[in-house]
């Protein structure tokens, strides 16, 4: 089985630069028993990281889920947040790892049930280079602020912070959107933007991999983290097995440079979550709608 997985990974890496122009799909299914297994499930992950990082993080989880429910699990992502949101709305995923704003605006209505979230809250900082003259949030008027995609949770939280600061996000600052958190941090590193708003887990991983250090000048309000959801069409017995597997995983198959993104508590990386924890997210979304977001 592992030989087949290894071959699949290598083949996909060779083809990645061509395939990922449009979409990404990784299959972690194979075993000698595949023919006797039940039909598989699709596991969608929103594209908050570069594709190689998503693969490194979630391929081992997909494999654990496959073993737990005795089904093939197909790991998928997309090249844009918007495409992922469309797929989620069309209920294309049986299992998904999604951001909070997509949960309250799309997944709830589409029949997805929350099963687990990350241990730490979703925090985002306004980051600058160590040499930057910027010291506090009130100095951001007229500055160029880098964000992940416009519909990313961190982008929404960054704008909430600016509104709470008394700035009008429609004209007091200039936003530049990037394909992912790490793309935003790369542009900050080369000095193409004044500030990057990024989630702390991604910041930790980026600083570790690039051997750099950023400085935070303001912190966005926190919300309950990104979450795993399972569609209600999945039988309850399997939903429970999926939840148990996610809550108990030690991410033993994930390399340290990727594992650093998830915070461990007693060697567990996820906790149970319920629908009510995301009520504040909906309040923030309604506030942003007043500004045309």
Number of strands: 12
Give Rg in angstroms: 19 Å
Low-confidence stretches: 1-36
Pattern of helices and strands? HEEHEHEHEEEHEHEHEEHHEH
Share in helix: 25-40%
What is the count of DSSP helices, taking H or I runs of 4+ residues? 10
CATH architecture classification of the largest domain: 3-Layer(aba) Sandwich
What is the topology, as strand order, of the major beta sheet?
1-3-2-4-11-5-12
Tally of separate domains: 2
Average pLDDT across residues?
A: 88
**From the helix content, strand content and strand pairing, which structural class follows?**
alpha/beta
Task: Give the oligomer, counting copies of the same chain as homo and different chains as hetero.
Answer: single chain
Shape: globular
What name goes with the CATH superfamily of the largest domain? Cypl, domain I
Instruction: Provide the CATH topology of the largest domain.
Output: D-Maltodextrin-Binding Protein, domain 2
Distance between the termini: 47 Å
Give the biggest beta sheet.
Answer: 7 strands, mixed
CATH class of the largest domain: Alpha Beta
> Beta fraction of the residues?
15-25%
Description:
With 293 residues, the protein is α/β, with parallel strands linked by helices. The chain folds into 2 domains: 185 residues, Cypl, domain I (D-Maltodextrin-Binding Protein, domain 2); 96 residues, D-Maltodextrin-Binding Protein, domain 2 (3-Layer(aba) Sandwich), CATH 3.40.190.10. It is built from 10 helices and 12 strands. The strands form 2 sheets. A 7-stranded mixed sheet has the order 1-3-2-4-11-5-12. A 5-stranded mixed sheet has the order 8-7-9-6-10, with helices on both faces. Strand 2, helix 2 and strand 3 form a beta-alpha-beta unit. Helix 4 crosses helix 10. It is globular and about 60 Å long. The N terminus is likely disordered.
């Amino acid at each position: 089985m592992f030989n087949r997985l290894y071959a699949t990974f290598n083949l996909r890496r060779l083809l990645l630069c061509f395939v990922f122009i449009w979409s990404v799909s990784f299959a972690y299914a194979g075993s000698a028993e595949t023919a006797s297994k039940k039909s598989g499930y699709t596991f969608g992950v929103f594209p908050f990281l570069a594709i190689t990082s998503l693969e490194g993080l979630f391929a081992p989880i997909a494999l654990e889920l496959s073993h737990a429910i005795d089904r093939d699990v197909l790991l998928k992502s997309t090249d844009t947040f918007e495409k992922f949101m469309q797929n989620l709305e069309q209920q294309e995923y049986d299992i998904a790892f999604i951001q909070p704003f997509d949960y309250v605006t799309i997944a709830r209505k589409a029949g997805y049930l929350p099963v687990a979230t990350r241990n730490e809250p979703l925090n985002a900082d306004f980051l600058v280079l160590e040499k930057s003259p910027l010291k506090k949030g009130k100095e951001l008027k007229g500055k160029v602020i880098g964000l992940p995609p416009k519909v990313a949770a961190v982008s929404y939280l960054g704008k909430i912070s600016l509104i709470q600061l008394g700035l009008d996000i429609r004209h007091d600052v200039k936003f530049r959107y990037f394909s992912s958190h790490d793309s935003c941090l790369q542009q900050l590193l080369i000095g193409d933007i004044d500030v990057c708003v990024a989630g702390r887990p991604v910041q930790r991983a980026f600083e570790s991999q690039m051997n750099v250090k950023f400085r935070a000048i303001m912190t966005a309000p926190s919300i309950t983290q990104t979450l795993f959801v399972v569609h209600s069409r999945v039988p309850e017995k399997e939903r429970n097995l999926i939840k148990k597997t996610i809550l108990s995983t030690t991410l033993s198959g994930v390399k340290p440079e990727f594992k650093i993104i998830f915070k461990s508590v007693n060697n567990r990386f996820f906790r149970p979550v319920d629908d009510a924890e995301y009520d504040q997210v909906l309040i923030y979304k309604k506030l942003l709608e007043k500004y045309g977001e």
